[in-house]
Structure formats: C-alpha cells, structure tokens
Design goal:
alpha+beta, 2 domains
C-alpha cells in the first residue's frame, strides 16, 4: 500500500449530477429521513459505479488496487470500494452504514476482489519469528480464515461511531488505513531481507529500533488490535493487514517473485560493475568498445530496477523498500 493524494482536481461530476431535479445524496437523505423505516431497506446507490468514477480512480491509482497494489484489470473487474461502508457495518445490525458518504469522492477507492470481498484465504499464524516461514513464501504455520473488507469498519475501542450526517468522523479513531488520507509507510513495512526473501507486509514497530514481527491473524479486528498493542507495533497497520488480507498466500507469493527479480537485477548490477572495473585498465580499442556496451547494459539494468519502484508498477512501495536496502549494500 502506498500513499496516493487525490490532489486538487474536482470530484467527478457524475457523483453530484441530478436526475429528476435531485442528486443521489438528496434522494438518500429522503430515504433515510428520521424516523427511518428499516422495512424500506438500503438505498440502491448507483452513481459511484459510473464510468467517469471508475476512469478517475483507475488513473489515480494506475490501474492498481488501492490496498495491495495488484493490477486488477488483467484478472477481474475493479470493485469500487467504499472506505466507510455505505449500507451496513458488520457486527452492528442497527447501523445503516455511512449512507451519506456513498457518493462522496473522498470515500471511494479501487479495490481488487480479494481485498474487498470476504473470502477464505491462507494466512500466516502469529509465531513471533519470521523463521517459521520457509524460503520461497511457503507457509509452514498458517490457517485458512476469512479476510477482505466488505462491510468491516473497525474503530478504536470506546470511540463513538458516526451514525448520521455531520457526526464527527475523526472521533471514531478508524483502525483501517486509507491510502489517500494516511501515509501507509508510517504503519506498515515490507520484509525485504536478502537472507530470506519473502513478500510479507508487517506492522511497523512503535520503537524505530525494535524488531518487526508477523501480525497476529485472528477472525476479529478487535483481537488483532489487542495483540498489536501488546506487541508494541502499529495497531492500524496490524488491523489493516488482517482486514485487507495483505498477507494472503497468493499475494505473498506474487510479491516474492518481484523480490527475486529485484535480487537478480541487483546481482547483475554488481557483476557488471566488477567486469567494467577490470576491463577499464586495458587500452585495447576493442576492449574499450566492449566496456562502453557493458556500461550501457549496467545503466539499463539500473533503469529497470528504478522502473519497478515507479508509482505505476505493482508493489511499488515494496520495491522502493528493497532499493533502499540495495543502495546501502552497494555503498558499503
């Protein structure tokens, strides 16, 4: 997950467009007017599905899921996801959802199916040590459990949940990260240790020098939050990892493949630099020509590495973390 500011561009016009003289928000306000009759059911929201909205989100996130940074276009249609769920809140049957935000641009994100929908996923158990996972992203200690956001929206224990327009959303203490409002790097880190390349996302330790640990996998976000607090790691990071399923097996395997590609390109860079250094001592014109070609190849390899960290690339936040470590290794 990476930070994606929305910028100053106005919201898509489709979200506030009027039909029969009323916007969707105005229609929803009438539908949910006080006293609300639960027999009428949830309002059939539609404008968030408009092509204009999908196109803007696709451009903003470069065709990637807002949560896991996977390209969704090649495998499945995008889900237009409501950060605060529009029609219900799981675990609170009397809550009608954040219906007044159903057409709010700031509440809409593009999501892959696995991050947005509740599905059974293989997820690592809490073991206290990364050594419990085999090289190559095979989980030795794992469990199959539900992950995916859907109508989940956990908030800080004891906080007041918003139930109507103009309620204070900040007072909720949302436990899920919003990539447009939050900087995920403050709560999440990538495991990019060359000694054991495995594409895990970890909650960031509260103390900068502390060792990172696997997040506790548990069915209830409240249980995850308690475990994270006890382990002195970011609570919002741990809950987001669990709810969005950021360590589901297929995703970890895909990120690991990217890490191994980066590892190979790093090795190529080091090897080319060594060959160039050796050959540069020769004065033969043919050798000098070969050195120039090798320098070009080295530069192209470095460009390929940097391209993997570009915002439009999948798992770019992880690639950036790997490159930071690579630079430190090469300068040592």
């Amino acid at each position: 997950m990476r930070h994606v500011p929305r910028g100053d561009e106005p919201a898509p016009k489709a979200l506030s467009a009027k039909s029969n003289g009323k916007s969707e928000l105005e229609c929803a306000q009438e539908h949910y007017k006080d006293p609300y009759d639960p027999k009428t059911g949830s309002y059939p929201f539609a404008v968030y599905k408009k092509d204009e909205v999908k196109k803007r989100l696709d451009q903003l996130f470069h065709g990637k899921c807002a949560y896991c940074e996977t390209f969704y276009a090649s495998s499945a249609p995008v889900d237009i996801e409501h950060y605060r769920p529009k029609g219900a809140v799981e675990g609170e049957p009397d809550h009608n959802g954040y219906w007044w935000l159903a057409m709010d641009w700031e509440n809409l994100l593009p999501s892959c199916i696995d991050c947005n929908r509740r599905r059974h996923q293989t997820t690592p158990r809490q073991t206290g040590s990364l050594e419990a996972l085999e090289q190559g992203a095979r989980f030795q200690h794992s469990r199959v459990m539900l992950s995916g956001k859907k109508d989940l929206f956990p908030i800080t224990e004891g906080a007041t949940r918003a139930v109507k327009e103009n309620d204070d959303l900040q007072a909720e203490g949302a436990l899920l990260l919003n990539p447009c409002h939050d900087d995920p790097s403050e709560h999440l880190l990538h495991h990019v240790d060359p000694a054991m390349l495995i594409g895990l996302v970890l909650p960031k330790p509260e103390d900068a020098g502390a060792e990172a640990a696997l997040p506790a996998a548990a069915p209830a976000p409240a249980e995850v939050a308690l475990g994270a607090a006890a382990a002195a790691v970011s609570v919002r990071g741990a809950v987001s990892i669990q709810v969005y399923g950021l360590n589901r097996l297929g995703l970890v395997q895909d990120r690991t493949r990217v890490l191994r590609r980066l590892e190979f390109l790093e090795m190529m860079t080091v090897e080319l630099a060594g060959i160039i250094q050796t050959l540069e001592t020769h004065s033969d014109p043919e050798v000098a020509a070969a050195v120039r070609k090798l320098q070009t190849l080295k530069q192209n390899t470095i460009s390929e590495i940097n391209e993997m960290a570009a915002d439009r690339a999948p798992y770019s936040s992880m690639a950036k973390a790997y490159i930071e470590g690579m630079r430190a290794r090469l300068s040592a």
